[in-house]
Specification:
This protein is mainly beta and 223 residues long. The protein has one domain. Strands 3, 5, 6, 7, 11, 14, 15 and 17 form an eight-stranded mixed β-sheet that branches. It has a six-stranded mixed β-sheet with strand order 4-18-16-8-13-12. It has a two-stranded antiparallel ribbon with strand order 1-2. The termini are far apart.
C-alpha cells in the first residue's frame, strides 16, 4: 500500500496519462500530422488534366508527433493555406492565376495575400464535425511548367484552442499547437534541377521559418 501511494503521488505530479498502453508525461505542446492527398500523383501531367488536392481527417485519431500520442480533437480545422508557384523562372508566376481553380460551394475559401510572400488559397471554413474534417479543391491545368504546391497549416494562430484531452487546459500560453501536412504519396522532388532549386530558394528568401512550416509537392505540366 505504501508503494502504491508513492506511485500515485509521482504520477499525479507528472500528470501521467495512459495512452495506447504507454505511460506518458503531460506534454502541453502538440504537432499534429495531417495527411493530404494529391490525385493523380503522377510526376508529369498534361495540359487539360485536373489535379485534385484533398484532406480527410479522422478527428478521433489525430497523431501528435510532438508527444507521440493519439488525440481526439472534435471539429479539427488546420487553417489551411496553399501556394502554387511556377518555379521554372524567377520571379515566379502564380500557378493559381495561370490555371483554373474549382472549389465546392460548401467551403469558404479566399485567394488572398499570404505569409508576406505571395497570393495564396486560404480555407476560412471547411466541412468539419465531431468525427471528421475534410477539404478539397481542383486545379484544371492550362499552363505548362514545373510547379511547387505548398500546403501550410496556420492553426498556431488560434491562441484559444480547446479540445477534450488537451493537456493543461485551453489557451496558447500553456502549450502551443501546430499542424504539419504530410503527403500520402511521393513529393516528386527528383523532377527538379538546379535551376528549379535556385528559384525555389529565391522564392523563400528571408522567409526560412515559413518555408520550414510548408509541406512541398512537385509536378510538371507538359503540352
Amino acid at each position: 500500500m505504501k508503494y502504491l501511494l508513492i506511485l500515485l503521488m509521482i504520477c499525479q505530479f507528472l500528470s501521467c496519462d495512459l495512452i495506447n498502453g504507454k505511460q506518458t508525461d503531460c506534454i502541453k505542446n502538440y504537432t499534429f500530422e495531417i495527411p493530404i492527398a494529391v490525385s493523380p500523383s503522377k510526376k508529369i501531367l498534361k495540359i487539360g488534366d485536373t489535379l485534385t488536392v484533398s484532406m480527410v481527417n479522422d478527428n478521433t485519431h489525430l497523431y501528435d508527433s510532438n508527444g507521440d500520442r493519439i488525440v481526439y480533437f472534435p471539429n479539427f480545422d488546420p487553417n489551411a493555406w496553399f501556394l502554387m508557384p511556377l518555379i521554372d523562372t524567377f520571379p515566379v508566376k502564380d500557378g493559381f492565376l495561370e490555371n483554373e481553380i474549382l472549389i465546392d460551394s460548401s467551403y469558404i475559401a479566399d485567394y488572398i495575400f499570404v505569409l508576406t510572400l505571395s497570393n495564396g488559397l486560404f480555407f476560412g471554413a471547411i466541412e468539419t464535425t465531431e468525427f471528421e474534417s475534410k477539404l478539397d479543391f481542383k486545379v484544371v491545368l492550362n499552363t505548362s511548367g514545373t510547379y511547387a504546391l505548398y500546403s501550410v497549416s496556420s492553426i498556431h494562430k488560434n491562441r484559444k484552442i480547446c479540445f477534450p484531452n488537451k493537456c493543461g487546459g485551453c489557451g496558447y500560453n500553456i502549450g502551443y499547437i501546430e499542424g504539419e501536412f504530410t503527403y500520402t504519396s511521393d513529393i516528386n522532388k527528383d523532377i527538379l534541377n538546379m535551376n528549379h532549386l535556385t528559384n525555389e530558394d529565391k522564392y523563400w528568401e528571408e522567409r526560412s521559418g515559413q518555408r520550414m512550416e510548408s509541406s512541398p509537392y512537385y509536378f510538371r505540366v507538359v503540352e
